[in-house]
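Practice problem: predict the structure.
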Amino acid sequence: MPRMSDGSAGDADYAVISRSYTDHRVPEPRIARIVHEALGGARTVLNVGAGAGSYEPADREVTPVEPSASMRAARPAHLPAAVDAVAEDLPFADGAFDAAMTTFSVHQWGDLPAGLAELRRVTAGPVAVLTCDPGLVRDFWLYEYAPEVLDTEARRYPSPKSLAEGLGGNVRTIPVPIPLDCSDGFNEAYYGRPERLLDEGARLSCSAWSFVGEEVERRFVEHLSRDLADDTWDRRHGRLRALPELVGSLVLVVSSPE
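Answer:
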């Protein structure tokens, strides 16, 4: 499978994205709690597409897998070093782990069915996939300002149905609420803090922006800045500034063996 210069195995170049990623993509404890609960009583956990270690449980024995050298280098020293491998070819024995997880990663995989089959092969218990439902991403106000970004996300994210089919077993899809002060800066995390998306680093940390080009970003910044200055955004969406949490496109797909 083709990989980029730093080893990135998906369609996004994490040698570039990693420059500001850890500044803006700080794991959100309330989301982490939902992911960790889905792992049940697992002692050993595989984390595929582990990146800089977001959402890895500190009270389990975690084996991270990350193909990007830039993201492996961004992992804090207290976390285990990541294995250089891809989801579609995991170097582990059948049933080697009690549970597995992957967060904001499946849309990067070159061969989704192969990656899901590998994830299930090496996992004896539950598999938890934190992702976004492509059928819901365009419901976010960002679509008014940069439809190309959310069209990109909708095209890249696999549906919960396809994840369920690829993982098999007993599958449930759990909506994951996003808190107003969410520390993990994916696009919807700024639902009530639109000014934050005017920060180039915040946009760079969301891979979809890397596909749309400078003209789309320039138009977005000009349009949103104007609407914030004259209160147009607040007249349309101001209620979101006080909404404690948003139930948007973020979901956790959990597969348990039959």
